[in-house]
Design goal:
Length: 88
């Protein structure tokens, strides 16, 4: 499971697409099994268990704190929502 702010860069990703994800120095390519956009963090967490997204976190508040560490993420989520990507 991968999540991103559903900005123009990510919002058109669909099932069957291949995506390249970058985390620090790591790059990997995955196929998208399912993609869905949610308007809020809470609505995403109604559909997916937090442990599936970030296993080390225990609450919505902790996840929001992590998300908001990224530049302008709070504003991006408010404007675009979040996209959840189930990957193969």
């Amino acid at each position: 499971m991968e999540t991103r702010a559903a900005s123009e860069k990510y919002r058109n990703i669909q099932s069957g697409d291949s995506v390249v994800l970058v985390c620090g120095k790591d790059r990997f390519q995955k196929k998208v099994k399912k993609a869905k956009i949610f308007t809020t963090v809470r609505s995403l967490l109604r559909a997916y268990n937090l442990k599936r997204i970030m296993s080390e976190l225990n609450s919505e508040k902790e996840w929001q704190e992590e998300l908001y560490k990224y530049p302008n993420y709070k504003e991006k989520i408010k404007k675009f929502g979040l996209i959840a990507l189930e990957l193969k």
